[in-house]
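Hi R.,

Here's the chain you asked about this morning:
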Amino acid sequence: MKQHDPGTLGIWTWSFDRQPAAAVRDAAAEIEELGFGAIWFGEGLGRDTIGQAWLLLSATRRIVVAAGIANVALRDPISMATAERALGEAFPGRYLLGLGGHRVGGRPVAAGGFTIPAGGRPLELMRGYLDAMDAVPAHGPVPDPPVRRVIGALGPKMLALAAQRTWGAHPYFVPVEHTARARAVLGPGSFLGVEQPVVFDSDIGRARESARSYVAAYASGAPHQAANLRRLGFGDDDIAGPSDRLVDAITAYGDLDAIEERVRGHLAAGADHVCLQVVGADSAVLPLREWRELASIVPAVANGRPVS
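And the predicted structure, written out as tokens:
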């Protein structure tokens, strides 16, 4: 069996968590028919990453389904390794496992009455987690081809680990400048799949305001994201605002031409794949209209890179 190509453009979304399974199946099938190469989803307090992946894979035939990311603070490596094998064997070449989690290495965080445990130093924890996954013996079918893994890496050391130990990296909440830096660390042989938030609104002031709460949630609420922004030259005032400068750097907004220009910026900086997340809309509603509009730029930016 062969690995399925995630293509140049994918969809990234949290919105499946708020929907019944039937609606998720229908949406996934439509995303596939629209021509996107991959569906990416996060893991919070909605569906667990394994259940969500199985739901999406079973509703589609060829598209890559990517965990972006499976939170290692919520699942021990034995459970993750056995689930990875089950998904890889059932849906050959289509499951892409992203590993990470901003609770790794930090203090315990209370969320909705639950406490998400902290780990040790992020780099050591991720290396140990990969070692432990690799050491789990197989007591059932082994997927062929093996499941590809990526790390939700931002800093240079985690990016280097991604290049050494996995297929590549999945940076989230990053400007084009970070993509260029990530490619320099990863080297030419590693996959680089970048999340890009988008807002459909040609009124720049209104679009900024729609995006500001999304940017604020990560800039001020996720210490690892704030640290990454500081490495990129954003100051405390940018992060606390968040400033227009930061919102503009993180979010693409306007018409399809403006969004395509941002995608091309990431590709020119070294990305292999860009996954587009519609933000600033009602999170309880699937952004089907926006996904359909975004599909029109898929042929224009497709580059036909082979999958290794």
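The CA atoms of residues 143 and 176 lie 35 Å apart.

Let me know if you need anything else.
M.
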